[in-house]
Structure formats: structure tokens, C-alpha cells
Amino acid sequence: MISFLGLCVQNLIRCIKYLFSGQARFSTIISQAAAISYDSLPISLMIVFIASLVMTIQVAKSFAMSGADTYIGGSIAIVMIREIAPGFVALAIGARAGTAISAEIANMQVTSQVEALKTLKVDPVGYYFTPRILAGFFTVPMVVLLAEFVGIVGGMFVAQGTIDLHPARYINSVWAWLSIRDVYISLFKAMVFGGLITLVCATQGYTTTGGAKQVGDSTTRASILSTIYMLVADFLINLVFYIF
Q: CB pairs under 8 A, 24+ apart, for 77-81?
């Protein structure tokens, strides 16, 4: 995994050089943004919404029994924005779009399309990776922002339906507990996760050799690696911003 991480860093440097050379096309970035984030929007929002419902059910009754029902909205908002929304959205996008990126590039690799691109004196890493990394870096935070809103609103409806908590008390608790710093950190996480997932999955696909079986194996490995690296990055970001 360490050597693979080094390869990811090398590919990232090549992408930065390709970007500043002015060869990246805006239309390609937009199409990749649609494939990565827009197409993953329904499943991402659904996962976060259901997670919010389950979490609210778990805490609402306990908070109400202890007389702390006014803290339900703030608790849900903090957990949703700091961890649930960016983490679950990243996992959903990695499982859907990340594996598709890996399979696409792996198929190009085993069918010699990458070698054909090299004969045209075009850097295949920059050509294939840069639009996908930029699309993930800039659009995953938008999905996370929507998911946070959906999760908080979902928690409000569950709290009202289970313990009859008035929406005004729920929202007041959210405003009292939530800080703009939490939102900034959440969006920063989303940017890191979006860029990391696309980079890892693209790199895994690019290193594929063999045939159809190896393409499938590479896709599975891309899903596992992107999840591991995303969780490690999540731990490090939390360590920096909430501990130190």
C-alpha cells in the first residue's frame, strides 16, 4: 500500500503539470463531473437520509427521557456535518463512480488504447486522470452540502414523529450547536475525499495488466483501496482540526 501511495503521488504530480500546461479541456471536466457527482446524487442523498433517520430514532427517546430533548437537533447536526455526510457520500461515490473509473481505465489499458495515446505524444496519466480528479475535487463538496441539509431535515421529521419535538426547538438547537467552522471542515473533507477517490481508482485502473479477469480484480481492489485511504484521510483530518 505504501508503494501504491507513492505511485498515486507521482500521478498527481503529472496531473498538476498537465493542468498547468493548459491541455485540460473544460468540456471533459464537466462531463466527468456529471458522471461522478450528479449521477451519484440520488444514492448519496438516500444513504445519508436513511442514516439520519436511524440515528435520530436511536437518540431521540433517550434524550427525551433525560429531559435533554432540546439538544437533539444540535447533536444530529454536529454528527451529520462532521462525519456522516462527508463519509457516507464519499463511500457512495467511491462504490459507484470510483469503480467505474477504475474499470474504464483498466479496459483502456488492457486493450492497448493507452499505448495508442502515447504514440500521439500525449501523457495518458494527465489526459485520463486530470479531468476526473478535478471533477471529484470540486463537485463532491456540492453533493455533501446537499446531503447535510437532507440529513438534518430528515432528523427533524423523525424527532417530531417519534417524541413530538416541535421543529422550531429542533432548528434552534441546530443553530445553537452548529458553527460555520464545522461546515468549512466538512467541505474540506469532501474536497479531499473527492480528489483522493478519483486518484486512487484511476491509478489502480492504470496499473492493470492482463485481460477481462484482471479488469474485474482491479475494480474490486480499487473499491477497497479507495475506502481505506479515505478512512485514513478522515482520521488525519479529524486529528488535525479537532484534536490539535
A: 77/152, 77/155, 77/173, 77/174, 77/177, 77/178, 78/177, 78/178, 78/182, 79/55, 80/48, 80/52, 80/55, 80/148, 80/151, 80/152, 80/155, 81/148, 81/178, 81/182, 81/183, 81/186
